[in-house]
Write a structure and sequence with these properties.
The protein is of the alpha+beta class and 132 residues long. The chain is built from 2 helices and 9 strands, in the order E-E-E-E-E-E-E-H-E-H-E. The chain has one domain. The protein has helices spanning 83-88, 104-118, and strands spanning 8-13, 19-25, 34-40, 53-57, 62-64, 67-72, 76-81, 95-99, 127-130. The two termini are 26 Å apart.
Length: 132
Amino acid sequence: MTPFEVKCVGVVDESGGYSFSVGIAENSDGGGRSVIFGILTDALPDEGDDYIYSVTDEGHRTSTGGVVECFLNRDRLLLSFSEIAAQIFEVRESRISFPLQISDREFTELADGLARILDREPPRKHDLKLTR
């Protein structure tokens, strides 16, 4: 995974409440490099199960869980990954920054979507900081 300027945000909320995902993309049409965060909304974590969401990049590399910090403001999305997730995504540093060039509506969708996905992880093992 390499950093890119985010020009598109997409949200998919499957009918029937089965899954929810929010994605960021390099191109305004949704193409190019991308990262998708997803969760099964009808699944409850088993006792001791720390990871109930996934993160996937455009190369289909997927980490189950692995976000240890998420910082979002109007200009930037900053993600810090666990050591295992950083290896999966071939991130040299565990932290990666994505500049944002998105509309106010897309920013709200991204903030709400990340909160919905990342705040479901019990026990809370990441730091989610969303500033609007």
